[in-house]
Automatic annotation (TrEMBL):
Active-site residue list: C65, E113
UniProt-recorded Gene Ontology molecular function terms: isopentenyl-diphosphate delta-isomerase activity; metal ion binding
Top EC class of this enzyme: isomerase
Protein's pathway: Isoprenoid biosynthesis; dimethylallyl diphosphate biosynthesis; dimethylallyl diphosphate from isopentenyl diphosphate: step 1/1
Keyword set, alphabetical order: Cytoplasm, Isomerase, Isoprene biosynthesis, Magnesium, Manganese, Metal-binding
Entry protein name: Isopentenyl-diphosphate delta-isomerase
Record domain Nudix hydrolase: where: 28-161
EC number(s) reported in the record: 5.3.3.2
Annotated Gene Ontology cellular component terms: cytoplasm
Gene: idi
Family as reported in the entry's similarity comment: Belongs to the IPP isomerase type 1 family.
Amino acid sequence: MKNQVVLVNEKDERLGLMEKLEAHEKAVLHRAFSVFLFNEKGETLLQKRAKTKYHSPQLWTNAVCSHPFDNESYKAGALRRLQEELGIELNDLEESFHFIYKADVGQNLWEHELDHVFVGKYDGDFNLNPKEVSEIQWISLDKLFLSLKKNPEIYTEWFKIILTEYKNNLL
């Protein structure tokens, strides 16, 4: 169950399950979520993916991106992954919008996701899972947008898309 994603159509109707790697090889539309965390200064949290990740290792991305389990809500999945990746518990997480995107992530792998984007606030400590995250940093959105223009290669492909959607929907 852990290595499967929920396949959906554009209306988010469940079509079945597929092994995660196979779904990424075949570019099949599946459920996903993304989390943006902000601190009291208004900075957003970035994580650098662990070097052992099977795609996009050592690239910066938003706080958490992952997939809900079958019969798990998007929000429950997002809260679970905050705990599993960053070692934090959060109660105040709000869904902001959702959209569909498709991104080539290299190595003949694709992210084709119906992505629900959540936003939360956090100012505590972290207990990073080294199998998922190699480091984190807080950054202002202004500095992030500048960095993205100057050094797009240090960010995940999906983060570039999600950040644009975030800017268009919430800023």
